[in-house]
Specification:
Elements: H1 3-14, H2 17-33, H3 35-63, E1 75-84, E2 87-91, H4 98-105, E3 109-117, E4 121-125, E5 133-135, E6 138-141, H5 145-148, E7 153-156, E8 167-171, H6 172-178, E9 188-191, E10 195-203, E11 216-219, E12 237-242, H7 248-252, H8 255-271, H9 275-280, E13 284-291, H10 295-298, H11 311-338, H12 340-352, H13 357-394, H14 404-430, H15 434-437, H16 446-482, E14 492-495, H17 505-513, E15 518-523, E16 536-541, E17 551-558, H18 562-565, E18 570-573, E19 586-590, H19 591-597, E20 606-613, E21 620-631, E22 646-650, E23 657-661, H20 666-680, E24 688-690, H21 691-697, H22 700-734, H23 736-744, H24 749-783, H25 792-824, H26 827-831
Parallel strand pairs: 6-11, 8-10, 17-22, 19-21
Antiparallel strand pairs: 1-2, 1-12, 1-13, 3-6, 3-12, 4-5, 4-9, 7-10, 8-11, 9-10, 14-23, 14-24, 15-23, 16-17, 16-20, 18-21, 19-22, 20-21
Helix pairs in contact: 2-13, 3-11, 3-13, 3-22, 11-14, 11-16, 11-22, 13-14, 16-22, 16-24, 16-25, 17-20, 22-25, 24-25
Length: 834
């Protein structure tokens, strides 16, 4: 006998279909009879389930990153932990020779490849006289990328791609952008009006759930930096493919020996100390392996391809989904038991006519599952309706996957949610004693009332926690936006890609300075916001290089107008000046750098640094600079980090021109600057942004999280209010005769409303007391990611008051409707049966 035949016989012989048909028929009749009750139940469950569906889509997408690669479980990225002096951090980049060394020295490594990011380029077709287009997704890559990662070629040969210098592979969307007529293969693209690259391959666009989605892969073979055997310079994202069965932990254990072999001699040559002495003084240089599938959620490394997400958000949104579904399920229980008086006589009659408790439970569970099934259908429609807005908030491209797995999951969800939501009402309603029910005595003891009160308290604990957390997130974002940063980010126009002007850049800057609506301007690729140039370098006092006096700090090349344009304050000494020819070898430190060096009188101190490497023998070239000033500390990274050591020197870094402008007529100012740009750079695109907008982008993830939490918090409050409505209905129903007697004895409406409402105020007060420490503990954990954050103990009372006010107001509105209804009822109707 086939399995399908056995299953068919089982269902035919063991399931009483007539009985279940009667259950469904009765369930539909009850829903139609109690339309308002059914509508509230379905609405509450639908909203809760729709929220869960959206959050599940979000969580599944977050957990799916990089898993589409066929060898994802064997791919690892090499990261480095760097500590020199008080500078400490984890970076996603390592040295150029690391990849080749991994393959040559470690038999468990099957393959390795590198990326080298170089920011944006101006690109145009060589065969057409068109304007340049700014593109950001460019990266140098080793050809081994196609052997390690899953990449689908649409044109070209993956076995030969990127093996020749000045060749590139681009994605399908970019190929169609530049070559809409098709046949991009073997065409030439010109980068920055200087370099010609031949297209040797076209690949499918990277999936959205990839932590890197670079549209242009340029051959690493043409990058001289990639051939330098310098282990102390970290610029390359390096990925390795382990052989089947290889142990990544065992491989990591071999890294110290590799450091001693390759890094040790260069530490000795460049820093004049042995690797052992370098590490003994608290310095640190350690390499570690990071699983590919961990990068998106568990990586917060510097020099990554871009900001990643956080596993904390996955846990937070998963908890919100569970909370909202729990609130909706509790509402179902409360609404079902609140209507118990209307079902009591039905239960009594059924029992007198021979129904056993098992059948009654089956009847009520059938009703519960039916309501849940309808709610799931409505929830899918709601989720589809709100999905575009949710995508906009979350920055994702989610869609409902109508697959067999989804249908199976929804069916299981109907049974689970319907069963859990209906199990208590089913047992509660089926427990009524017919002799008491038919005499008009509803068996609703204090235990059931207590349980319903506990459930409502749970609902409002969850709601209040969400409200307080949302308020504190917005207070932190407001703190970030308004904190004194040490520079003025307002009214600063940043013009991109000014390097394309080449030798005309200084003339363009001077022309801007002549405009009455431009107060000052500066040329520098280094800006106090993320995703601009950074350059970490080791410094030490001149002639005194030891293993404990070196400072790893940022070195920014700026011009003479940098400090005044960004309104940075000099705390000691002076700023750069064209009147001093020696300022070409001058240095300005920030206050943190002065502390790291231990200078009591920093002005006049001489500081040495590795300026460059000799191209002939790769020996270090040391430059020495004189400290002429100290700038007040300013935040040049996210406020998640403390201000670190930094120095400024005069140099040429022409990536941006930042201009402080008069914004009284912003449109005319930008239009005038664009006209000047076209005079100096015909054919070059005019791209600009504002410094304050770029600053805000650093906290885009938190802002999105706050917006999403606000939406779900409002929905959670809405669903919780249905719970209050249910309990208010139940209590009013239980005290109908009491209210009638009070009215006969002279009680007015306000007295009765207060009488029915005060119990709910106690429930809210209990919820508030319990939820406050939970919310503060959770937000304290979240704020630990920020070195600069709000004073939680100071602002928490304000957030608590806001939460209390919102909760009490909404609770009063929910309860007063039922209270007024009961208070306005005719006492004759409630007492006629006594």
């Amino acid at each position: 006998m086939h399995a399908r035949d056995f299953i068919a016989i089982f269902f035919l012989n063991h399931i009483d279909w007539t009985m279940w048909k009667n259950y469904l028929t009765t369930a539909f009749r009850n829903l139609l009879k109690q339309r308002v009750y059914a509508l509230i139940n379905i609405l509450g469950l639908s909203v809760g389930i729709a929220c869960c569906l959206l959050i599940v889509l979000f969580v599944v997408d977050e957990l799916s990153f990089d898993k589409f690669h066929e060898k994802a479980d064997r791919i690892y990225r090499i990261g480095a932990h760097l500590t020199i002096g008080e500078m400490d951090g984890n970076v996603a980049v390592v040295s150029a020779p690391m990849a080749k060394t991994m393959v040559n020295d470690f038999p468990e490594v099957e393959n390795a490849m590198r990326f080298r990011t170089r920011g944006s380029y101006l690109i145009k077709r060589k065969d057409l006289d068109t304007e340049n287009v700014k593109e950001n997704g460019l990266v140098f890559s080793d050809p081994e990328i196609f052997d390690i990662f899953t990449v689908k070629f649409l044109a070209g040969d993956k076995n030969t791609a990127l093996k020749e210098p000045n060749t590139l592979v681009l994605t399908k969307s970019k190929a169609e952008k530049f070559f809409p007529e098709g046949n991009a293969l073997n065409q030439i693209l010109t980068l920055d009006n200087r370099w010609d690259y031949k297209i040797v391959g076209v690949i499918e666009d990277w999936p959205v759930n990839s932590h890197f989605r670079q549209d242009y892969l340029m051959a690493m073979e043409g990058l001289d930096e990639s051939k330098q055997p310098i282990w102390l310079s970290h610029n390359f994202q390096t990925y390795i493919l382990l052989k089947e069965g290889a142990d990544p932990k065992a491989l990591e254990a071999k890294f110290p020996d590799m450091m001693e072999k390759y890094v040790g001699p260069q530490v000795k040559a460049f820093m004049n100390v042995s690797i052992e002495d370098f590490l003994k003084t608290g310095n640190r240089l350690e390499y570690f392996l990071q699983p590919l599938t961990d990068i998106h959620l568990k990586s917060h490394l510097e020099a990554d391809f871009g900001p990643n997400s956080d596993i904390v958000y996955v846990w937070i949104f998963s908890a919100i989904a569970i909370i909202i579904l729990l609130i909706a399920s509790i509402n179902f229980m409360n609404l079902s038991t609140a209507r118990s008086a209307n079902r009591a006589k039905e239960v009594g009659v059924r029992k007198v006519l021979g129904s056993v408790r098992k059948n009654l439970i089956s009847q009520f569970l059938t009703e519960s599952i039916l309501i849940t099934a309808i709610s799931f259908l409505v929830a899918i429609l709601l989720a589809e309706a709100f999905l575009p807005a949710f995508n906009q908030l979350s920055g994702k491209e989610l869609h409902m996957p109508y697959t067999l797995w989804m249908v199976a999951g929804l069916l299981i969800g109907v049974l689970v949610v319907g069963g859990i939501s209906g199990i208590y009402p089913a047992f509660f309603l089926s427990s009524f004693q017919p002799v008491h029910v038919l005499k008009g005595k509803l068996s609703a003891g204090s235990g059931s009332t207590t349980l319903r009160s506990v459930l409502v308290v749970v609902q409002f604990i969850a709601s209040i926690v969400l409200i307080i957390s949302t308020v504190l997130i917005y207070q932190q974002m407001n703190f970030v936006q308004n904190k004194k940063l040490g520079f003025d980010k307002e009214q600063v126009l940043v013009i991109d890609d000014t390097y394309s002007l080449r030798d005309k850049i200084h003339a363009f800057k001077e022309e801007l300075m002549q405009r009455p609506d431009v107060k000052s301007a500066t040329i520098s690729s280094f800006l106090p916001v993320e995703n601009t140039d950074r350059n970490n370098t080791v410094f030490w006092p001149e002639g005194k290089q030891t293993d404990d006096n070196q400072v790893l700090m940022q070195r920014w090349s700026v011009d003479f107008d940098y400090l005044p344009t960004l309104d940075m304050k000099i705390a000691d000494g002076r700023g750069f000046s064209r009147e001093f020819s020696t300022d070409s070898m001058a240095m300005i430190l920030n206050q943190t750098a002065v502390k790291h060096f231990g200078f009591e009188n920093p002005i006049g101190q001489r500081i040495s640094v590795f300026d460059d490497f000799n191209p002939n023998n790769n020996e270090p070239m040391i430059g020495t600079y004189t400290v002429i000033g100290v700038v007040e500390d300013f935040n040049f990274e996210s406020l998640r980090q403390n201000v670190s050591a930094l120095c400024l020197t005069i140099g040429h870094s022409p990536g941006f021109i930042s201009a402080r402008i008069n914004t009284s007529d912003l449109k005319a100012t930008i239009s005038g600057i664009e006209s000047t740009w076209k005079e100096f750079g015909p054919g070059q695109p005019f791209n600009y942004s504002f410094l304050d907008d770029r600053f805000s982008q650093m906290y885009q993830a938190e802002q999105r999280m706050g917006s999403i939490m606000t939406g779900f918090t409002l929905l959670a409050i809405f669903v919780a209010c249905l719970g209050l409505f249910a309990l208010a209905a139940f209590m009013a129903e239980q005290r109908t005769r009491e209210i009638g007697i009070r009215k006969v004895l002279g009680a007015d409406i306000s007295h009765i409303v207060v009488l029915l409402s005060r119990n709910f105020l106690w429930l809210i007060a209990i919820s508030f007391v319990i939820s406050l420490p939970i919310a503060i503990t959770a937000m304290n954990y979240w704020l630990q990611d920020y070195a600069n954050h709000i004073d939680l103990l100071r602002v928490a009372p304000q957030a608590a008051l806001i939460a209390a006010g919102i909760t009490i107001f909404i609770a009063f509105i929910s309860v007063s409707a039922q209270s007024l209804k009961a208070a306005l009822a005719n006492p004759v109707d409630s007492l006629r049966n006594e």
